[in-house]
Structures are given as structure tokens and as C-alpha cells.
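During the second year of the project, the team shifted from modelling isolated chains to modelling whole assemblies. The rationale, set out in the original proposal, was that interfaces cannot be judged from single-chain predictions alone. As a representative example for this report, we include one of the complexes processed in the last quarter. Its constituent sequences, exactly as entered into the pipeline, are reproduced here:
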Amino acid sequence: MMISCKEATRLVSQGMDRKLGPWAWLRLRLHLAICDACSAFTRQMHFVRRAVQRLGSRLP
Amino acid sequence: MKSFAARVEEERPYLVRYASLQLRDSHAAEDAVQEALVAALAGEASFAGRSNLRTWLTGILKHKIVDIIRRASRESTLAPDPLAEVAELDMLFDATGHWADAPSAWPDPDNSLEQKQFFAVLEECLARLPAKTARAFMMREHMGFETDEICKELAVTPTHCWVLLYRARMALRECLQTNWFRQ
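Output from the structure prediction step:
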């Protein structure tokens, strides 16, 4: 049931591109609930997304 | 009042920057923009009534960029990305899948979004990504395509597509950690 951090990062990334299946989603949620490192990682991933979008809109 | 052609021409520098970010090749970017501007001038009538010229032009440009990407994928001018990159990704985790160097929260990231220097670092990090990885990532995050379109245009399997996007994100995170958020 418990997934590794490596697997969690893969699911975080996939979740940014498609809706995860219910099992994958649940396993990821359970992991993030107890893992500070992967929670920080998740926020960083969403930050990177915003930054790249901002890069486009900042063009002169 | 400026002519339509003059207003379109004014957007050229923006469009070239936009295309360059995606294509990473200034000649290809110029070509894409040239094609887009020709199409835009021929299609002036279809702009009528729309409020934002830049948005409209960017929409046309995206199609031209995708044409170039499609041609390149068909001719496979883009070499597969080096395997070393995969090994690099593996180094982030130990044998049991735990972080070798666990991420901790970045301090006040929103403040970074206000800083010019941050975006210079981000561009540098993007430039370091291998070609195919960067192409997939920028199609997703810069041009806003869905992954099935990206896989199709790059002629790669969906699984490979996820891997490219995953690798790009991991590499960018590492690069920003090292070059911007390092305490």
C-alpha cells in the first residue's frame, strides 16, 4: 500500500498532466499526508509551473 | 490610427521571443513568426471583432510552431536524449526509493516571481534541458497543450511522454534548488 518517495514524485508529475486513477490518487494522498519532503516537492512542482507560465506572459 | 499591418508588425519581437522559448533555435523561430504574420495579414477579416491582437497572433503562431515540431519529429532531426540523464534522475533517490537529499520548502517563492534575475536563472535552467525533454515540457507548460497532443506531435508513446515531462520537472527543480534557492 505504501509507495516510495520516488513513486510519489512520479505520481505528482502525472497528476499535473491527467487525472490520476482513484487508487493512485489515494496512495499518493496517503504518502503526502506523512511525508514532508514530498509535500514540499509537490508545492515546488506547482511553483515551477506558475513560473514557466509567468515567463511567457512576462515577454515584452 | 495605425494600419492593421503596422499593429501586427509591432508584435513581432514578442512573437519571436515566444517561438524561441519553444523552439530553442532563432532561425526556426523567425521562420515560424514569418509564416504566422503572413497568415495573419491574409486573415485580417477573421480578427475583426476580437479584442486582443497578441492573443490572436499567438494562436496562429502556435499552429506554425507545431508544424515545425511535427516536421522535425517526422524527420527525427531530434536525437534521443542521452541516457546519462536517466542515471542522474536515479541518483536523486536511494535503492529503496527514498530521497538522497530530501526537499525542504523554498522560502517565499512568490517573491521570486517578482524578480527579473529569477527568470534569467529559470531560462538558463530550461536551456540546460536536453532537446526532446525541453520540447515536450514547453509544449505542455508554455504552449499549454494536452499530453495526448504532445505525444502525437513528437511521435512518442504516451509512457515516453510522461517520462519526458517528469524528467523535465525533476531537472528544473534541481537546477532552481542549486542556482536560486540554495541557502
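The interface with chain A takes residues 13-14, 17-18, 21, 92-93, 96-99, 102-106, 109, 112-113, 118-119, 122-123, 126, 138, 140-142, 146-147, 162, 165-166, 169-170, 172-173, 176 of chain B (CB under 8 Å). The longest helix of chain B spans residues 53-74.
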